[in-house]
């Protein structure tokens, strides 16, 4: 069953692991406000948002800031993450799962798999990530 209205959260702060934790806490509050979003959509979308936010933290220099806007609408979940780091050169089309022995490098490939849309743009102002997951009908 879809949600009835758009719910939005916004969080900004330093690009550190505390930001990622705070973002995940805000997602938990969002899910409590929109319990009709199927659990699978919540989990997979949350995974993608967490992976992208963690990548920003891991690959940004000290002093970088992040702003996140996440929305749950009747038909889709969306997130926009913007940072103040130098533009990153990202090959989303080439993001693939690494070998089984690799200790990292799965975030972009996982995100591409679970999202319906994943976009990155870089400019002098920083980087912007846009993520969308269409809400699937709940299985019976």
Tag the structure with descriptive keywords.
140 residues, 3 helices, 5 strands, globular, five-stranded antiparallel sheet, HATPase_dom, Histidine kinase/HSP90-like ATPase domain-containing protein, alpha+beta, Heat Shock Protein 90, HATPase_C_sf
Provide a descriptive summary of the structure in words.
This protein has 140 residues and is an alpha+beta fold. 33% of the residues lie in helices and 29% in strands. The protein has three helices and five strands; from the N terminus they run βααββαββ. It has helices at 17-33, 39-59, 107-114, and strands spanning 7-14, 65-72, 76-83, 117-123, 126-134. Helix 2 runs antiparallel to helix 3. The longest helix is centred in the middle third of the chain and has 21 residues, at 39-59. The radius of gyration is 15 Å and the shape is globular. Residues 15-132 form the Histidine kinase/HSP90-like ATPase domain. InterPro entries: HATPase_C_sf, HATPase_dom. This is Histidine kinase/HSP90-like ATPase domain-containing protein.
Strand order of the largest sheet: 1-2-3-5-4
Q: What is the H/E string?
A: EHHEEHEE
Bin the helical content: 25-40%
Compute the gyration radius: what is it? 15 Å
The overall pLDDT average reads: 87
Instruction: Tell me, briefly, the overall form.
Output: globular
Proportion in β-strands = 25-35%
CATH superfamily caption: Histidine kinase-like ATPase, C-terminal domain
Q: Count the strands? A: 5
The CATH class turns out to be Alpha Beta
Give the structural class: alpha+beta
Low-confidence stretches: none
Separate helix tally:
3
* Whole-number tally of structural domains: 1
